[in-house]
């Protein structure tokens, strides 16, 4: 006999187990409750986080302009290093 949906939901929340595992729909991992949580990704430097916050506030046209500027800077660096610049999108006239 299976529990009611609200009871199953409460069990899943308390035990922190997906409902599929409790219902036997997926193979249970051996001792999955003792495994360490995955390591958090390394944090971005403060400057990058600050830039991302600022970029999120831009209007779409401003964002496109910033993207074009960044792409141009990267191409300029490649040219200065003596390598041919990769082909890019056509320039607007």
Automatic annotation (TrEMBL):
It comes from the Bacteria. Residues 3-22 form the HTH cro/C1-type domain. InterPro entries: Cro/C1-type_HTH. This is HTH cro/C1-type domain-containing protein. It comes from Cystobacter fuscus (strain ATCC 25194 / DSM 2262 / NBRC 100088 / M29).
């Amino acid at each position: 006999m299976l529990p009611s949906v609200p009871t199953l939901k409460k069990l899943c929340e308390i035990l922190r187990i997906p409902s599929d595992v409790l219902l036997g729909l997926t193979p249970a991992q051996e001792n999955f409750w003792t495994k360490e949580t995955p390591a958090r990704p390394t944090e971005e430097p403060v400057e990058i986080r600050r830039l991302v916050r600022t970029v999120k506030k831009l209007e779409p046209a401003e964002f496109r302009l910033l993207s074009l500027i960044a792409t141009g800077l990267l191409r300029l660096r490649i040219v200065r290093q003596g390598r041919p610049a990769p082909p890019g999108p056509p320039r607007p006239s």
